[in-house]
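Two quick folds needed for the group meeting slides. Do the first one here.
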Amino acid sequence: MENFYMSRGASKVVNTCAGIKAGEHVLIVTEQSRFSIAQALATEVYRIGAEPTVCIMEPRSQDSSEPPKEIAAAMKASDAFLSVVGKSITHTHAVKEAIAAGSRGLVLTQFTEDMMIHGGIEGDFERLKPICVGMAQAMAGAEKIVLTSPGGTHLEYSAKGRRGNHLYCMVEKGQFSTLPTVEANVSPLEGTANGVIVADGSIPYIGIGVLEEPVTLKVEDGRIVDISGGRQAKMLADDLKAKNDPNVYNVAEHGVGLNPNCHFCGFMLEDEGVFGSCHIGIGTSITLGGTVKASCHYDVIMKNGTIVADGKTLMENGVVKL
């Protein structure tokens, strides 16, 4: 019965978001726990006359781990790939190389059957596209960006020389996007971020989810140097320390949520899309325009961001000012 209700979402993913055409070769990367979603997508790919291939892999031990080399090669050879996994493979060389080879990809990390039916997937991606592109262009290359929030965030960094990334859930050749988050983001220039991040929305990783109380991260010269708060802050701090990788503390991304149909629920790609929210990604930045590869990429999300780029206000208390 769930597959029946997922059919509308599968059609939107395949036709509107990925733009699959008859005769194309589509790779669907999944895990056993997400097989029902992969099956719904494969059914729609087949229905329109394209050729689906479903690869079931063992779940990665942690986010940002590379998929098996055979799957990475298949991604690179595909016309399009759909990643339906629990542990993210978004920030990997496999994705970066597949896109560089001309494939196009959609990432449905932590997707549930309900997310194929309700929530962010109901967003009007065509209408949101120009807002998303405009925000990314306004952030790209800025000498100085200041991010603040009512919860206490005050972070300053430079995006000089950095591209803006616009992820509006629709892709063409050589592009990838997350789904259902609609977001614009930029990767801060390494070593330039300073200030404090106060996450009061969600940290949708390692079982943390929607925040019970704020998590405060102190930033010096582009790296997290202190994490404080309650139980959930300790979960994040302990997890990062256990990775024994200094790059996990890199300030990798500043993202802006732009999907009014998203809501905080503890799932990464739904939480990151909440309109007016901002998230700071820490760890890997190679797929976003940065130079750092870490053993993970986590996002910490705050509500009602204010963004000023080179003196111009782009968002104020969660309201877009472009």
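Then this one, please, same format:
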Amino acid sequence: MSTSIWASVDYDRPGKQTGDLWLPYSVHRSAYGNLTIPLAVVNGAPGPTLLLTGGTHGDEYEGPVAFRRLLRWIDPAALRGRLIILPALNAPAVRAGLRTSPEDGGNLNRAYPGEPFAGPTAAIAHYVSTVLLPMADFYHDAHAGGSSLAYLPFVSLRRSGDDALDAAALAAARAYGAPNIQIWGYSPDPRLSTAEANRQKVVSLGGEFGGRGTVSREGVALVERGVRRLMAQWNMIEARPEDALPGESPARTVEVSGRDCYVYAMRSGIFEPAVDLGDSVVGGDLCGAVWGLEDIADPPHDQRFSRDGIVMCLRHPGLVQKGDCLAHLAIEVPS
């Protein structure tokens, strides 16, 4: 297997280990240097392998915090199977608080299946594709809106075209206990982590659990509880009574079905939203207005929704450039 990355842990050794992935990276500052990526492996009795990644984008924090919390309480003696946890997968971006890597400008979630020697971002994606996903039965990549977006919290799955795989992912999403399940039916970009998991027939979930570049307490709790519920669903741990939700009702299921779910800025300026997360809208409703920055006499430029739906995502910073995503909708579908 050709990969530039090596691990300081043994993926098969019983018990709990922490260490790093080491990515050789020769730069002016350090001729024989490495980039390091924190890693934990927990092995219990025989069972399935669950791969958890957070920090794919470095300004999304709920996954990294929740996975670190999970690592503190998980007991190998009570575990059936193996956990592989990378809470800061795109470690250079996480350390810099940036969506993309400060080393090469790469977006890790637009890099799969990656290449072993084409720069840090491509090398990390290649390691996930060729080493980690082949070991995994299940995969969860936790996201948030980062610095530029705010999201209504949801767990998500990406349609694969394989009915059995999609049914298994949907069953997992229902077990997660999130208030919303979002299906990515419109998926023009094949370079995402969950798209790679689909290609390898690994049951996978994504999700957006916060945004605005902050740490959502609700989002952290949702991810931590959701992973415990998944592990109980897959018989990796015993179910915990405190993870049951009082009066639990089925999650609302929504789908992003096409490009017309998105609203993009048609000019640069200051975005004044006219809706809130969770609002229901119809086609033609006002999404918001973009105010110009130069001529005070310029009228605002109205931005409208193209179709009916639920507002799942909104632009966070007020300043926008033409082409920025201002919002996206999802359409409720039968649960």
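Slide caption for protein two: The longest strand covers residues 15-24.
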